[in-house]
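Hi Prof. W.,

I finally got the Serine/threonine-protein kinase prediction working! I wasn't sure whether to trim anything, so I left the full sequence exactly as given:
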Amino acid sequence: MPRPAIEIQALKSDSFGRISLMQGDAGVFVRRDLRHVPWWLRLPAWWLARREARGLRRTHGLDAMPQLLGWDGRILDRSYLDGAAMYQRPPHGDLAYFRAARRLLQRLHRRGVAHNDLAKEANWLVLADGRPALIDFQLVVLGNPRSRWMRLLAREDLRHLLKHKRTYCPDAITPVERRILKRTSWLREAWFATGKPVYRFVTRRILKWEDNEGQGPKP
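And this is what came out:
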């Protein structure tokens, strides 16, 4: 009979659950536990975790992305990726990192998955060997990769990657990439006009989050 998993380290704990590094019989993995979520947030917390599980099922087998190990409606287990967030291990001047990151996005989008939360540096990992990886699939959108909607979302994913490239490898931005960065979509304008103010109000005023938009602690 398998032994119960043991928590090694709490990685994050907020109103939508507790994320922990766990040790089980098969090795180290990451667990999102919703059992202690306040009653009034259980439905959105479940919806986000379910969405993550669906996204991880769609990306099963892709390298440099978590693999879904289990989801029972209260606990989501995924494989552990040995790396640090982009803001913790900045890829300054590492053009190979951004080339590999763009290929990683292409593989993701071919599966009909848009990550939809790549503006946050916390969702980009720099693995121990220097390669890029993606985590946090709670806001993924699934669909036909050839549809107009999915192509729009894929372009937004790419724009966010190019923003990070502009930060860490500014001299390597190509003319085509500059045009992509300058050409904002109606989706971005709608988000900044309507969705983002609501997001900031809920996270900062109600939930008391201050995570600098996922970019790490402010200096």
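The helical segments are 42-58, 95-110, 148-168, 175-182, 186-206. Does that look reasonable to you?

Thanks,
D.
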